[in-house]
Amino acid sequence: MSTIFDTFIAPPCHDEIETLYQDEHLVLINKPAGLLSLSGKNPQNLDSVHHRLVQIFPGCTLVHRLDFGTSGLMVIARNKAINAALCQQFSQRTVTKMYSALLCGHLDHDEGVIDAAIAKDPALFPLMTICPVNGKPARSHYRVVERFYHEVEQGTLLPLTRVQLSPETGRTHQLRIHCQQLGHPILGCDLYGGRLLPGTERTPRLMLHASELNFVHPISAKLINARNASPF
């Protein structure tokens, strides 16, 4: 088994975490792009959602994560019992999530499903890979919101498609690699081809935002329908 070395050092994130809702059991936040969900092993990667929030809410734990470059909704448990209850909802796939994204190029179809198993790629860490043999099942839905052109340097027109993405499963990098598989990587995605088209090299961030999160409050049993509009 090959040893994996993680050389990634996160640049400083000066954006604040926005608290959207809190009670004695859980916290709903809007995570900024460019912030780790959990601190890395390297001491230079200490800053993270968890590192910041544990100062305010001692004992809080992450129920799920968003990629470093992804912004948007996260639910944080304030104690172990709430964490266990929420994790059960995620593992049973009763939590529904919706993401907003900008994809490179114009999609042919207005909606569809990407069904492609995902596996770790030790030789190319931190990349994941599509692998029908060794991969874990992964399924994502997409729906086109609009197709348009964005003017970049020297008047170049960049074709983009705004989509809503809904993952049925929660594999690492799932939406990013599934969009690449579709032939339309997420704009700004450095790992899966979102900076390869002319005019995309200077995209300021990964254009992926967790915009909806629906789950049942473990104590009140009320359905929480969290919404947070995309910043792009």
TrEMBL record:
Ranges where the Pseudouridine synthase RsuA/RluA-like domain occurs: 25-181
Top-level taxon: Bacteria
A family per Pfam: PseudoU_synth_2
Annotated signal peptide: none
PANTHER family named in the record: MITOCHONDRIAL RNA PSEUDOURIDINE SYNTHASE, RIBOSOMAL LARGE SUBUNIT PSEUDOURIDINE SYNTHASE A
Name of protein: RluA family pseudouridine synthase
